[in-house]
Amino acid sequence: MAATPIAVVTGASSGIGAATARQLAAAGYRVVLTARRGDRVEALAAELTEAGHQATAYALDVTDRAAVDEFATAFRSLAVLVNNAGGALGADPVATGDPADWRQMYETNVIGTLNVTQALLPALTASGDGTIVILSSTAALAAYEGGGGYVAAKHGEHVLAETLRLEIVGTPVRVIEVAPGMVRTEEFATTRFRGDTEKAAQVYAGVDAPLTADDVADTITWAVTRPSHVNIDLLVVRPRAQASNSKVHRTL
Ligand SMILES: NC(=O)c1ccc[n+]([C@@H]2O[C@H](COP(=O)([O-])OP(=O)(O)OC[C@H]3O[C@@H](n4cnc5c(N)ncnc54)[C@H](OP(=O)(O)O)[C@@H]3O)[C@@H](O)[C@H]2O)c1
Predict the structure, then answer these.
(1) 133: which of 95, 96, 165, 210 is 20 to 30 A away, CA to CA?
(2) Backbone region of residue 196 per phi and psi (left: phi > 0; alpha: psi in -120 to 50; beta: other values)
(3) Whole-prediction pTM value?
(4) How remote is the CA of residue 250 from the centroid of ligand 1, in Å?
(5) Neighbouring C-beta atoms of residue 175, cutoff 10 Å
(6) What is the distance in A from the centroid of ligand 1 to the CA of 2?
(7) What is the 170 CA–ligand 1 centroid distance (Å)?
C-alpha cells in the first residue's frame, strides 16, 4: 500500500495556515502543523487526529535556520510544503516607517520561506512528485499607500517563487504562488496594529464579505490537488468587493 502523502504547513496556529491544515487533512494528506506557538498547533493536531485524520505538530520559528534544518531531518520524502507563515507589521508611510519592522517582515516572509524551502527541497524532490506553495499576497504584485515594508517583503516572496520555478524546472517539483487580497482572519490585522483591535477592525469596516481563511485554504487545496503536470503558477484571489489593493467598496 502506498504511504499517505505528507503535507507540511507553516504558520498553522491560526488563520489561513490552520484552515489549510484542516482542508489538506480532509483531502487525505498526513499534515504536519508548525508555528512558534506549539500549544496551538498541538491542539489542532489533536483535534484532527480525534476526527480520524493523520496530524502531528512541531513548534518552529521559520526564521531560525538551525531549528528549520533540525526539523527537516525528519523527512526523507515530502509531497507538499505550504509556506504560509508571515504577516505585516505597521502601516506607516515610507517616510516614517520603522526599519526594524521592515527587517522583521523581510525575515519572516522572505527568509522564513527561503529557510524552509531550502531545507525541505531535497525531500520534496525525493518524493518524485513535490509541490511547494508560497502564500504571498496581492501586496506582492502592486504597491499601496502605507503598505511599505509589507509590499516590499511580499514582492520578495513573489520573486523567490518565480526564480525557484525557473531554476528547478525539469525536476519533479512544482511551485505554486497563491496571492490573496483582503482576508478577514482573527489575527492578521491585530498583529499588524500591535494589538489595537479598533484599528484592526477598520481594515474590514463596511466591506461586504471579505475572504475567509477557509476561502483561501480551499484555493490552496484546489491548486495542490490538480494533476501533477498542472502547475498553477500564480493564483490571485480577492473578495468581490475589492478591485485592487486600494479600490475597496465599503458601505459606510
Ligand atoms: N489576512 C490577509 O488579509 C492576508 C492577505 C494576503 C496574504 N496573507 C498572508 O497569508 C499568511 C497567513 O496570514 P493570516 O491572515 O492567516 O494571518 P495570521 O492569522 O496572523 O497567521 C500568521 C501565521 O504565521 C505564523 N508565524 C508568524 N511568524 C512566524 C515565524 N517567525 N515562524 C513561524 N510561524 C510564524 C503565526 O504563528 P505563530 O505566531 O504561532 O508563530 C501564524 O500562524 C501570511 O503570510 C500573510 O502575509 C494574508
Answers:
(1) 210
(2) beta
(3) 0.98
(4) 25
(5) 24
(6) 33
(7) 31
Q: Is 204 a catalytic residue?
A: no
Q: Which residues of 3-22 are buried (b: 16+ CB within 10 A; e: fewer)?
A: eebbbbbbbbbbbbbbbbbb
Asked if the 6-248 domain carries CATH number 3.40.50.720, the reply is yes
> Which residue out of 29, 106, 150, 204 is catalytically annotated?
150
Backbone angles phi, psi at 94, to 5 degrees: -55, -35
- The per-residue pLDDT for range 53-103, each reduced to its tens digit, is 999 999 999 999 999 999 999 999 999 999 999 999 999 999 999 999 999
3-state SS, residue 186: coil
Binning pLDDT at 50, 70 and 90, where does residue 224 land? very high
114 sits in which H/E element: helix 112-126
d(CA 121, CA 119): 6
SS3 140: helix
CA distance 110 to 171: 23
Q: Beta strand pairing status for 173-180 and 130-135?
A: parallel
